[in-house]
Amino acid sequence: MLDKHELSNVLSQALSKGGNFAEIFIEEKRISNVLCEDNKIEKVNLGREKGAGVRVIKDGQTAYVYTNDVSESGLMKAAEVAGRTLAAGKEQNREIHLTPIQSGLQFEFLRLPEDVELSEKIAQVLSANQAAREIDDEIRQVTVAVGDTHRQIQIANSDGVFVEDESARIRLMVNAIASRDGMIQTGYEVAGGLCGWEILDTVSIQDMAQQAASRAVAMLSAEPAPAGRMPVVMHAKAGGTMVHEACGHGLEADLVQKGLSVYKDKRGEQVACRELSVIDDATLKGKYGSFRFDDEGSPARRTVLIDQGILNTFMNDRLTAAQEGAELTGNGRRESYQHKPIPRMTNTFIASGNDDPQDIIASTRQGLLVKKMGGGQVNTTNGDFVFDVQEGYFIENGEIKYPVRGATLTGNGPRVLMDIERIGNDLGFAIGVCGKDGQGVTVADAQPTIRIKELTVGGTGQAADKIIKRIRRK
Questions:
Q1: How far apart are CA 142 and CA 350, in angstroms?
Q2: Domain holding 201: CATH number?
Q3: Are residues 240 and 290 in the same domain?
Q4: Facing residues of 36 across strands?
Q5: Is 364 exposed, middle or buried (0-12, 13-18, 19+ CB in 10 A)?
Q6: Which of 298, 333, 329, 297 is CA-nearest to residue 316?
Q7: Same-domain pairing of 214 and 243
Q8: Are 442 and 371 in contact (CB under 8 A)?
Q9: What is the CA 408 to chain-centroid distance, rounded?
């Protein structure tokens, strides 16, 4: 890492050809990953990465150059290339004064990744693999993976911002596959957070493995899902996939400014039911999408995106905020020093409501209960989406009757936000790595138990047709 004087020299070089803004992002991180498949350790990956990126902005245009040479001379070369790419004006010398910024957030990392022996990580993975396979003879395949990252960063820019930060993240994953008579079902569990390996004091990867395997086996006996328009109850355990995909991306300012968001020109308008608020909050302790500073050096913050149904603001980085004259929201994120920052979600969720989750189910005459979401697709331009349901149940007369398999949810994000009619007082988080523009960043999403007035549910089989006929008769 460089001192303030060296960083100031690099920034001056980056602006010497007439740029409006310059930034240095230096990153050093240690990573380790352990993967178990076919009852054996299939892959172990240990490594260290170190590098820096220099960004110059002029009249809304960006040049970005990265290098593995993080010496002052190496960064001076990168700064010269970035500055010359955008401007070729008269040579100027701009003096930069850097002021360290401190965060009031206290995140603890009690067992840093490098303090935990590789043998302990391998033992956890093998134990989880065994726990999943012991659930049932119908379990055919189990994949268990654990990974960690210990990251140190320096950020300095021509506005005088100087940030140094350190963080650790842990991720645990189990995927179990069950098979019977040619039918295949999967169960998936994942956990993680902004923390060290003390996560094992509160999360058991063996319990995760048993849950994943049990779900895969249970879904083998599930009825084919019904098909048609019906109420859908999204359990808090399903996590916030719906809000992340069908709503969150459309609230990232770069997509809005490019005309690729259904929420363009709707600030101040009602875009959801009056009881619903959507929040992005990177300050939550221990959550997978949390941090003290974003990757531009802006302090983490809590941003109310939709406030009681009214679109309040978008998620900005420095570039989009400057273009709109908007405030920074701490959403400038990047996968690594090899990428320039763009607006990204952190921990995004629908705020809890006042309804009892059990009462939401009990008051549903017929419909689908979703307890675990699978993959999906969304079109941010119009908000249309299609999601798979990994674990679902049919509700009849307010009771959970039986599990169903093969369900898909098709709808429109903005329409769903208007059609939410019950909001529970619980809140369930899920984690993931969100992809956008070729970059993956850590995120968490959440929602309470909610009931959507009506969605199109896709299903297969004659049993599904029988369920639909029964719904229509009643």
A1: 33
A2: 3.30.2290.10
A3: yes
A4: 41, 144
A5: buried
A6: 329
A7: no
A8: no
A9: 21
Number of domains into which the chain is organized: 2
Of 190, 221, 252, at which residue does a domain stop? 221
Shared domain check, 341 and 276: yes
Q: What is the DSSP letter of 425?
A: S
- Residues 168 and 253 grouped into a single domain: no
Share of the chain above pLDDT 70, in %: 96
- Quick check: helix, strand or coil at residue 166? strand
Q: Is the predicted pLDDT of residue 111 greater than 90, yes or no?
A: yes
Domain end residue (candidates: 202, 221, 240): 221
Residue 108: its pLDDT value, please?
A: 92
**Nearest C-alpha neighbor of 79 from the set 2, 153, 5, 11:** 11
The pLDDT of residue 461 is: 42
pLDDT of 473 over the 60 cut? no
Shared domain for 19 and 143, answered yes or no, is: yes
Q: Which long-range contacts (CB under 8 A, 24 or more apart) does 62-67 make?
A: 62/86, 62/319, 62/340, 64/340, 66/337, 66/338
Pick the closest to residue 12 from 2, 22, 26 (CA basis).
22
Q: Which domain holds residue 156?
A: 4-221
Distance CA(337)–CA(153), nearest Å, equals 9
